[in-house]
Amino acid sequence: MGAVRSPERLLTQQYIVGEFSLLLAELGAGRVGALRGRVDSLRHRVEHTPVPSLSCLVPEALDLADAVCWTALAQGDADDFRRRSRTAAALAEFAAGADLLPPRAP
Q1: Do residues 92 and 66 lie in contact, with contact meaning Cβ atoms separated by under 8 Å?
Q2: At what angle do helices 58-74 and 78-97 cross, to 10 degrees?
Q3: What spatial distance separates the first Cα and last Cα of the chain, rounded to whole Å?
Q4: Residue 43: closest CA among 63, 28, 55, 62
Q5: pLDDT tens digits, 78-87
Q6: CA distance linking residue 45 with residue 19, whole number of Å
Q7: What does the DSSP assignment read for the chain?
Q8: Which of 49, 25, 45 is nearest to 35 (CA)?
Q9: So where are the chain's domains?
Q10: Residue 82: C-alpha distances to residues 34, 35, 106 (Å)
């Protein structure tokens, strides 16, 4: 017999996917130049990846967040850098809280 999926578990999984996608959307908003395609592609993959496999996408998301922050700095836009770095920090906190960070090597 298959596993029973409770409405609470389904809602939690939908929340995880939605929040991950929303944080990526915030990173990709505004002037990110060539990174927009990478953000959009990653968002699509997040939205179509089973929740247990999302942890595989977190390192790419964090690397992309780093690149977006560096892009803002390179453009000399301090306000944009602050906004993007807050979003990057929120993404890292979300990934940790949702237990999506891949295990660390010993």
Answers
A1: no
A2: 170
A3: 38
A4: 28
A5: 999 999 999 9
A6: 14
A7: -PPP--HHHHHHHHHHHHHHHHHHHHHHSSS-TTHHHHHHHHHHHHHTS-GGGGGGTHHHHHHHHHHHHHHHHHTT-HHHHHHHHHHHHHHHHHHHHTT-SPPPP-
A8: 25
A9: 54-99
A10: 20, 18, 33
Query: CA distances (Å), 68 to each of 31, 36, 75, in order?
Result: 9, 9, 11
Question: Which residue is listed with tokens 């915030």?
Answer: 26
Please count the residues of the chain: 106
**pLDDT tens across 67-106, in order?**
999 999 999 989 999 999 999 999 999 999 998 987 776 6
